[in-house]
Amino acid sequence: MSDTMVTSNRSRRKKQLRNLGYWVVVALIILPFLFPLIWMLLSSLKVQADITRVPPVWSFTPTTQHYRAVFAEHDFAHYIFNSGVIALGSTAFSLLLGLPAAYSIARFQQTKFSLGILVARIAPGITFLIPWFMLFSRLRMVDTYTSMILAHMLVGLPFIVWVMTPFFEGIPVELEQAAMIDGASQAGAFFRVLLPLTGPGVITSSILAFVFSWNNFMFGVVLTGARTKTLPVAVFNFMAYSEINWGGLMAAAVIITAPVIVIALIAQKYIIQGLTAGAVKE
Amino acid sequence: MKRLLTALMVITILVAMSFSVLAAEQPFKGTTLRIVLSNHPWTDAIRPLLSEFEEATGIRLQVESLFEDQLSQKLLVEFASGTSTIDVFMQRPLQEAKQFQENGWYTDLRPFAEADQDIDLDDFFPSALLAETVEGVLTGIPIVTEQEIIYYRKDLFEQAGISVPTTMEEFEAAAAHFHDPENSFFGFVSRGQRAAAVTQFSSFLYSFGGNFDVDGVATLNTPESIEAFTYYGDMLRNYGPPGVLNMSWPQALAIFAQGNAAMYTDASVFYSNMLDPEQSDVGELVGFAQFPAGRAGSRPYSVVSWGISMAQTSKNKEAAWEFIKWATGKEITLAAQAGQVPSARTSAWENPEGVKSFPAQLVEVIMASSEGSMPYDRPNVIGVGEARDVVGTVIVTAIEGGDVAAAANKANRDYQAILDREK
Predict the structure, then answer these.
(1) pTM
(2) Which of A115, B39, B59, B250 sees the fewest Cβ atoms within 10 Å?
(3) Which of residues 321-360 of B touch A (CB under 8 A)?
(4) What SS3 string covers chain A?
């Protein structure tokens, strides 16, 4: 009797220890990744003199002055709107062109076509920058949403095509045929049968395309002006010659990062599904 | 009848004149200028005044303002494409003028300035205009100047009864006296990061009698230059904070501003950060002193850090000149200087209004530093970035306590190669 109690106690303690070890390892792995984010959040709530203090201050009275300044003095609402329009626009148009393209690549084995799209994606973005600028400035389209949406589609579109092609390949052609027997056209079968089945893929690829556009800095520097300046470009408003407003910079960084983190948390299930689906085919 | 006719004629002429006066009041009505500026206190100072200019001239201004690195990137892409619509832009003559001029991206402002005496070029520091002149072309009008000075802790020097150092020997002695690393207090702090340190090292180089190059020959390994490298490296290694190799101005300034160092050498523009209680714990305790004298005397740099220029591709050059003349004119310069932007105009420095926002001690130091100063703070070549890396390597070796002579010899060869390439 007492023997069994000892063993069960021991095994419980063993289990607890193992659990503890698990969480220690998890913390060790996560901390380096989270630390910059925590630092950013803390700094955005400190006054300037405390931010650069060595050794760092851990207890302080939080201030919201930086967040207020970000919206009141720096017009961040405007930049959020700009980034939103451009990210949503480029993602929507990439889906519009990319989904049918991926479908067609999957069904008709257009490997050369898909390779062509991939090449455009592999070339570093900066190579497109000067030609684009020449083109857009001749067309008087610099500092318009259209030019930025087109520019961001360069990355978003190939991404969607490449993520979606294996999805469409993974769906048995019989399903489509069945739909067509029931009277659907090819397009009807695509929209009514295929798209709903590839939902996770569509969500994954559009989230990643959206996040790319939201974060992209290089295209924005050159192709935007006062009217369409995007968030990553606007963050640099806090850096000036001989003066860096760390607090404002951190508050702006928190504001930019927050939606991306929220989206990622909500959609992480889909993203994992989306990236692994199609990896194994029957 | 005759009288009536004369009267009518007089009236007609008067009316016509008044119309032409009205027209002259807004001579550029309908013109739009695209102006690209840097995030800088100067930009903040003139921004609220822009509408006055628009009303007076009828020119509409489209102003963008960017961080300096982005500004460079944007200017490069736009000008290289040849389809830029920029009319007026801010630029750093020491960093960009040679390259931009080589590419033909500037409109020479000299003909404009000579035809229009309102600008009064003679009012500018001659060295400042020289800094903007590349191969005889006036590439821009200087708007911001800076000198290297010593920031020191008035309170500590007074307590210790030590006078403010005027020579390199006194400078080192003072650093040694205050250095107390066990209590995280350091005798001296300055930039130690490879390329960033080069500009603040340059005044040491000149004061020891060295230079980057003389008549196209690299002089990084002369005995004078090696002495300067060694001195700067020793100072930071012996009396500087740990981690100085990673310090550019934001880190170095923070150490001094938080009251952890006795002396700091850097550009005069940082004084406003020091005095701002939000950014600094030492505000009232900061003293300003002229750069210490070495073998060749006190020879700090005194440079034009920013100027304003007209793009070659501008389609509205007359209007662009009107803006440049206004923005660099005596009145606006005075207003900008009242907003803590040190200008290149003598008239602004002589006007009590113009120096009101500067501590009196700083004005004295700035004036004194302008004499015997050097007009550049970095290698004067097109490949500035590359040359700064080369010079910075020797600084790093000196701080680490390595073989300075060997590093200087190697750097000298590399720098000579850059000079030869650009001949």
Answers:
(1) 0.80
(2) A115
(3) none
(4) CHHHHHHHHHHHHHHHHHHHHHHHHHHHHHHHHHHHHHHHHHHHCCCHHHHCCCCCCCCCCCCCHHHHHHHHCCCHHHHHHHHHHHHHHHHHHHHHHHHHHHHHHHHHCCHHHHHHHHHHHHCCCHHHHHHHHHHHHHCCCCCCHHHHHHHHHHHHHHHHHHHHHHHHHHCCHHHHHHHHHCCCCHHHHHHHHHHHHCHHHHHHHHHHHHHHHHHCCHHHHHHCCCCCCCHHHHHHHHEECCEECHHHHHHHHHHHHHHHHHHHHHHHHHHHHHHHCCCCCC
